[in-house]
Amino acid sequence: MNHTTRHAVHPEDFKSYGTQKLREHFLMENLFVQDSIEVVYTLYDRLIVGGVNPVTKSVKLDTFPTLRSENFLDRREIGIINVGPEASVTVEGTEYTLAPKEALYIGKGVKEVVFHPANTGEAKFYFNSAPAHHTYPTKKVSLAEAETVEMGALENSNHRTIRKVLINSVVESCQLQMGVTELKTGSVWNTMPAHTHDRRMEAYFYFELPEDQMVCHFLGEPQETRHIWVKNNEAVLSPPWSIHSGAGTSNYTFIWGMAGENLDYNDMDKFPITDLK
């Protein structure tokens, strides 16, 4: 269990950051290390971003010193999405098999979570975890059970399928919400027109991106944007005051995860494309 901490950044300070400092504060690399759990503890709504890569053995979700708790989920909930081949997760003795892009919600108070290797290929699980004040039951969500919408158009290079796998219309949670967005062939833009939401922070995880291609992720206040180049299997933090949008050199898939005080998916402040700077 390897962990780092990311502190919150003031938008006025953000404006002075160069390339390396932007990457140090917002980009999360190397989330998948064989037979390990890599976590980033953020001071944005105390969201944890993590990756699990069980290859030669099963890996248990353990606590770490920053949490000051006996078990990882003593005061937390977690959403797990399979970003590799079919593999399973055991929750207090009950095994849940997850096909690619299927999700598993686990509520506060669960003591044992174990990630298992895949039978074929290399298992990879991506997760977000947020503080929880109430216990909700463990629930697996298949892609068929997700709330699915089609958005955008090929003419605007942003035709995409959004699968809301862990939102309050599908799963009861305290504050955590997650979903999977797939860009169609020929489309590269996500979350455009851009928006912010002061009630929630967000994290984006990019995957299914060819190894020789990248996504240019945009962040910052709408009138003062910056960008970070992101590779396959990397994630970016987005403060509540920041837009979160991207354009790839190829189509790709990404997972969005949110934490904060509002569970209303449509609670966002939109900005016309022509107003961005």
What this model shows, in words?
By secondary structure, the protein is mostly beta strands. The protein has two helices and 24 strands. The chain has a single domain, classed as Jelly Rolls (Sandwich), CATH 2.60.120. Helix content is 4%, strand content 43%. The strands form five sheets. It has a seven-stranded mixed beta sheet, with no helix packed on it. A seven-stranded antiparallel beta sheet has the order 2-21-18-23-15-14-13. Strands 5-10-7-8 form a four-stranded antiparallel beta sheet, with no helix packed on it. The longest helix has 8 residues, at 19-26.
Architecture blueprint of SSEs:
Blueprint: E1 2-6, H1 11-14, H2 19-26, E2 27-28, E3 37-42, E4 48-52, E5 59-60, E6 76-82, E7 87-91, E8 94-98, E9 103-106, E10 113-115, E11 125-131, E12 139-141, E13 147-151, E14 160-166, E15 177-183, E16 189-190, E17 195-196, E18 200-207, E19 215-221, E20 224-230, E21 234-238, E22 243-248, E23 253-260, E24 269-270
Parallel strand pairs: 1-3
Antiparallel strand pairs: 2-21, 3-4, 4-11, 5-10, 6-9, 6-11, 7-8, 7-10, 9-12, 13-14, 14-15, 15-23, 16-22, 17-24, 18-21, 18-23, 19-20, 19-22
EC number: 5.3.1.17
Binding site for Zn(2+): 195, 197, 202, 244
Keywords: Isomerase, Metal-binding, Zinc
